[in-house]
Amino acid sequence: MAWMIVRQEVNWSRPKSKFSFNAKPKPEPQSFPHDFVDYAVSIGRATRAKPPKRRISEK
């Protein structure tokens, strides 16, 4: 999975597949498959982002 910050809504369907993806704009990074992130970035509707750091829970 890859992370991106979506600036405009983006829709994409994988070629020859029943899977499609939709991302709505949010200020927080969102996780999606790499090919969808590549598409959204290539059309200028999103920017790549680093994954958020995991919180370490105290036991």
Protein architecture, described:
The radius of gyration is 13 Å and the shape is globular. The protein has a 3-stranded antiparallel β-sheet, covered by helices on one side. A two-stranded antiparallel ribbon has the order 2-3. Helices cover 15% and strands 32% of the residues. It has one domain (2-48). A hairpin with a 6-residue loop joins β2 and β3. The protein has one helix at 34-42, and strands at residues 2-6, 10-13, 20-23, 30-32, 46-48.
What fraction strand? 25-35%
Tally of separate domains: 1
Tell me the total number of β-strands: 5
| Radius of gyration, in angstroms, nearest whole number | 13 Å
- Total of DSSP H or I helical runs spanning 4+ residues: 1
Q: Helix/strand-derived class?
A: alpha+beta
Write the layout of secondary structure elements.
Layout: E1 2-6, E2 10-13, E3 20-23, E4 30-32, H1 34-42, E5 46-48
Antiparallel strand pairs: 1-4, 1-5, 2-3
Keywords summarizing the entry:
alpha+beta, 32% strand, 15% helix, two-stranded antiparallel sheet, 59 residues, globular, 1 helix, 3-stranded antiparallel sheet
Give a summary of the structure in a few sentences:
The protein has about 60 residues and is of the alpha+beta class.
